[in-house]
Amino acid sequence: MLQLILSILLAACLSVLFLRIVREDNASGKIRNARIGAGLALVGVAVLLLALQTAAHQLLSVNFPFLVPHLPAAYFLKYLQHGLTALIAAVVLWKAGTWPAGDAKLFILSALAIPVIIPDAAHFPGILFLALLVNIFIPAGFVFLLESANTVKTRLIGESRGETARAVALGAGELVRSLAAASGKPGKLASFLLLTAIFGAVRFLKESYAGSLHINETLFFAFMMLAWPALSSLLKTGGNLALGTAGVCAVLCSLHPLGREILVSAAFGLTRSLPFIALNKAIRGLMGQDASRTIPLDALSQGVILTENYFKKIKTAAPDFFSDNFSSIYPDGLTARQAEQLKIIISRSDAPGLDLSIITTRTGQPFAGWIAAGTLLTLALHGKTLTILWKSILRLLNA
């Protein structure tokens, strides 16, 4: 009963808090630490009251008739593990530049609140943080792709036939140039092959050892969204070696029946790696990582997020300056010192050869609304991923 009362009160308070956070994020692009702190305080009080009730029952054999049943002690250990994994996931995504610190903090708040609010809290799923990530990013990425496709369609319909044909020709030329550029960067090709091989290996293990291994491909897909930035960065160097190793392994596998079965599973991995790349691209676009704008020198200040290409330009033009001032690049933008030092070197009369005065930056899109929507979706599905909705729709269609 106490858990039910607290879950209702906590849900009501956090609903008001989340509405304010989403409104402020849409208006200013910032999430105030005070809002996150207030939410964490509410969750902390709720967990403390539940822990005191459990301790009173187990240590003092005290029961409050109108507040029973109490949560088992194992719940709090599981809750602690869940909180730590959610914290690690949020920090990993922040370090990878997927979202800024404010969104990471909001995700942690959501992850800590759900096990208290969720029905049958004592048995919340152990991989709840991954389910929350799936329910946040997949709808957001899907809507972004739809909006992007609709924008392209609107532009094409609004143009004349000649302009449309010209746009299609330019798009085809850009695709060819992208493929040519990828062929000159073996690290990217090696990353894609590795991703395909990983998904293929998971499918092979799932089918070959179905009795002993219980693999949820959807949750593994979500896990890869966390781990992929670190894995792909390992292949930025040594791409040729990685491609050569992959080719030798493929030839050796083709000589044995089991190896050929593995190759078939690896080919199946394409059905996972291609959507993975598309979703990853959509998330980058949703968070503003692929969109850039130019700002004047006087607008360069703390918190400005420079594009990767501009960082490369600084490193090429002034390697010593780059190593002295940009050894640590923060996902949330420049520090005050970095901004001032960059202004100085750009303004110098003996500035480096490359033109650093054209400052390209990127701005993240408001994302608090998607975190709030993913939280509601996770609560509605009792800690499961939205794929359960798709399975239910398929069952209805088959019936």
Q: Could you give a short description of this structure?
A:
Helices cover 72% and strands 2% of the residues. With 399 residues, the protein is mainly alpha-helical.
Describe this protein's structure.
α5 packs across α8 and α5 (128-158) crosses α15 (368-380). This protein is 72% helix and 2% strand. Strands 1-2 form a two-stranded antiparallel sheet. It has helices at 2-28, 33-60, 73-95, 101-117, 128-158, 161-183, 186-208, 217-234, 239-253, 257-268, 270-286, 308-317, 319-325, 336-347, 368-380, 387-398; strands at residues 293-295, 359-361. It has three domains: 2-126; 184-286, no CATH class; 293-361, no CATH class. The chain has 16 helices and two strands. It is mostly helical.
Radius of gyration, CA atoms, in whole angstroms: 25 Å
What is the β-strand count?
Answer: 2
Number of domains: 3
| Main sheet strand line-up | 1-2
Instruction: Report the span from N to C terminus.
Output: 39 Å
Helix/strand-derived category reads mainly alpha
Mean pLDDT: 75
Strand content: under 5%
Determine the fraction of residues in helical runs and give it as a percent range: over 70%
Question: Order of helices and strands, N to C?
Answer: HHHHHHHHHHHEHHHEHH
The low-confidence parts are none
Shape: globular
Major β-sheet annotation: 2 strands, antiparallel
Q: In DSSP terms, counting alpha (H) and pi (I) runs of 4 or more, how many helices?
A: 16
